[in-house]
Amino acid sequence: MKKLLKVLSLLPSFFLVSFAPAQVKNASGYDGKAYDTSIVIDLTDSTVNEINAYYGDVGSQTGSTLMSTLYTTISTDNYFLNYGSGLSDVGKWYQITDRNWSISDPVDPATFKFITNGKSTDASSFYLYNMYMSDAANNDKSKAISNAVNGYSKDTSLTAIDYVNYKKPNSYIQVDKEHVWAKNHGFKVTETDSKGKTSDVFVKGAPTDLHHLVAADHNTNSAGHNDYMYGEVDHSTAKTIYSYLADDTTEISGWLDTSSETFEPTDEWKGDIARCLFYMATRYSNKLDQNTQAEPYLYITDDKTYTDDNNTTFHGVQYNLSTLLSWNEADPVSNYEIHRNNLIYKNVQKNRNPYIDHPEWVRRVYDVNYVYDAADEKQPTTTGTDTPENTSSNTSSNTNSTTSSTTNTNSNTSSSTTTSSNTSTGIPIVDFLIDKGVPLPIIIAIVVVLVIIVIVLIFTGILGSKKKKKRRNNKRKK
Fold this sequence. Notes:
Blueprint: H1 2-19, E1 23-24, E2 39-40, H2 48-55, H3 63-74, H4 89-97, H5 135-138, E3 153-154, E4 167-168, E5 175-179, E6 189-192, E7 198-201, E8 213-217, H6 218-225, E9 229-230, E10 239-244, E11 250-257, E12 262-265, H7 267-283, E13 297-300, E14 315-318, H8 321-330, H9 335-347, H10 354-357, H11 361-366, H12 428-435, H13 440-477
């Protein structure tokens, strides 16, 4: 009897957990798993107050002092994904972090599931905003692509991707995971299998940090940037690099000077790239005699006497600091960058890129000639300079009470807002469940089950009492 009563006492908690609305899981990693009914992704952008609280008061700090402060903030309690292959791990998360929200299908945070197979019937439901492709191409469904098509076979008779038969016009139509800070500059490790095949090793950390590991055009990554430094080159003598689009057309994505081992992207990606690199050189600024592949020491400089050491100390260098400083200012932060920064922070890595939130901090940290001026202080950047198509303006929930903030103007509301009823039944537990948004049919079912259990317990108790009374009477007769 006591055991039954104990079980009964736990039932209300069980039903509340089972049927209460899904809650937002803030700033924690999902380890690449699909969402369950108790977890909702957060598609909102952080507010100015939230961003200010994250960084705290940096005062008038500059140079290495400010870098050290930012390092402490952005390296605390990080969560990194596995590198994975295809539509797993990092590639899976691109469906959220690198999603082109303007032309992809809407996302309902409460029910979203990752697509894990390029041959899924939903493979054409999303497009990625791929680095090196132009804004115009990324926002044109006939030209945009996602990593779902990476395994499709080539059919040169096509002029568009065939999602039904899993074919594409050109094998170069593919999405890569682009290490903006090339891994051979500080954290490249290879291994050779029993058959003599060599492959790269990716541990969680710098090799899988989403703030620089981005969805990008395959050809530009392999034939253009590859392991080269970013910088500016003479276009008249450099090799022109192209992106391959879904309709089997191409467009210029950059220029490669092999003699100086320098790749220059098109103007619209220069600021994005610079801010990725500045993030990496801050997040991985803790120099040790012996760093690791996961936590290397990375440095940006104009001094080309510095060299990389990938295997002994894991120290890496990126040249052309002065050029990157100018890129950051010439190509301001975009809405896409802002939203991606928030998605990574709120749903995966638990850290932010400070140079997207505060692009003016780039000079304060990296320009040795910078002198602090209070007039340079700015509030966090929460609205980009580009057009609205790069924001998550179409992320919405159309069929239930879960709605998501979808603009970069920011909101203090949660990404999951449950509509509650003002109806009062006069029964406290029922009113509580209604207030929590539990559907009425479920509440009725809960009540019915509880009533049945109570009846069974009462009936069991009556029978138990009768048996005890009978045993007592039998003892007296004896």
